[in-house]
Amino acid sequence: MSAWTSGELDRIGAAEELELASVRRDGTLRDPVTMWVVRHGDELYVRSVNGRGSSWFRGAQTRHEAHIRAGGVDRDVLLVETDDAADELDAAYRTKYRRYAASIVDSIVSPEAQAATLRLVPSI
Fold first, then answer.
1. Is the separation of the CB atoms in 34 and 19 below 8 Å?
2. Which residues lie across from 45 on neighbouring strands?
């Protein structure tokens, strides 16, 4: 695994949305979905607002590999499940998306979404 460059962190972290296509069992990419992305320190996170039971999240758990596009960055990543720093991530999401309706932000920081938090790790 390699680390994000500072430019990638800045561009992806500033992007409103991220397109994420998870990898199927046969190695092909699923159709991309639009995700809310947040930067926390030197890490990037996405959450499934529909929780761990969503078909997207279950598919992402199959291979833990995906391809992302955001802020001009086009990169293969690993999807790492985490429940670390939920309060800090909630604060980061609230700050980044504060101009959106409270109901939208509330869905991103809901307990269901918190339980379906994935850290994006660049793959080689």
1. yes
2. 38, 119
Name which of 24, 73, 78, 72 is nearest 46 in CA terms.
78
User: CA–CA separation, 89 vs 44, rounded Å?
Assistant: 10
- Given a contact cutoff of 8 angstroms between Cβ atoms, the answer to whether 116 and 77 are in contact is no
- List pLDDT tens digits, range 107-120: 999 999 999 999 99
Helix (H, G, I), strand (E, B) or coil at 11: helix
- Structure token digits, residue 20: 């994420």
Query: How many whole angstroms separate alpha carbon 44 and alpha carbon 15?
Result: 11
d(C-alpha 49, C-alpha 113), whole Å: 5
Beta-bridge mates of residue 23: 29
Q: What is the pLDDT of residues 15-67, one digit of tens each?
A: 999 999 988 888 888 899 999 999 999 999 999 889 999 888 888 888 899 99
**DSSP string for 64-118:** -EEEEEETTEEEEEEEEE--TTHHHHHHHHHHHTTTS-HHHHHHHTSHHHHHTEE
